[in-house]
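Input.
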Amino acid sequence: MINDFFTHPMRIFFLTSAVCAVLGGAIFFTPVDFVSWHKFIFLHLVAALAYAGFLLTGLTDWTNFGGGLKKHAYVMFSFFAASFVSAFFSLFAAHFFMALFWAYLAGLCVYMIWLDRNDDQLGVLAFLLGILGFEIYYLLSGEEKFLNLQIHLHVIAILLVSFRVSVVLGKEALNREPGMQDAAFVPNFVYKNIAIVSVCAFLLVSVFFEGSKAVNFAAIACGSAILAKLKEWHYKELLRHSFVIYYYLMQLLLASGYIIYGASGILGLGLETNMLHVIALNGIIFSIMLIFNIAGLRHSGQELEFLRLSKIAFALVIAAGVCRGFLAYVWSGFYIHLPATLIAVAFVLWFIDFYKIFRDNEFSDDPE
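Output.
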């Protein structure tokens, strides 16, 4: 079974990412420097494994790559394992090994794209090189902002990936509507591109004009652009399906996080750190959970129908972001321990469902 998981690395990487997310929640209950640890775990271990699992499944299809993935999965998993073990002795060494992980993943993606002469995937490649560049600069300089700003690079990845996901969700929703099997859902790529450019602008302003009001206005632009993307979902034929509602909520909370972040900076409300956690939890972590469910079901021969435990997990992730971002000033428990517990439980619930699905079902190609 483990051998099969490495043959189709989406499975081993998704499951391991979920385990890391549970550990990331549990770390807040230990006497370690949990601030540094949770940044490392969620921005690198959880996210890196999630993207690797997704790209080694999706990009192989998009670029018609026919080579085996097992040896690449072994190499990247070895980098992950070295990073995980070394983290107990040195977070610098742990970041170094994850930089090797990102470098290998980027190099493999370059190879796939080059073989297929496929310039449609350059956005994915730009994201990977951006993460690698920021991580290398963080290792060389030790400047914390280059670690924190990686959150927004992950948002760019979400906007890239969610465009493809929205095509799947829209088509699935219409197929379930009586008499609409021949209808097509075409997401607006212009809004997607505007949102990505806005986040890129936010990153540049944050690097070169840190502390200026321009950062706050750029954040509002990001939120507004993401909010504009939601217009394409305002049809009852789409919004009556639970998987569309989860996707819609993720985008809505992500947009709200950016808008309130910007408004807080302009008005001096001091909510920027809270909103950064809304972006991270309700944007990045929620998206990872969404991808785990959609890709996990579709590549295991299952119908796109979220399982009961997965639905509970979605609700817990949303609650974690709301607690950390909006309720943290009401009660100190909302600040750290409750959100951490909710995230850990959410990924435990996902793991329970999908370990059995991956164990009992052969890996299948995308039905589209």
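The mean pLDDT is 89.
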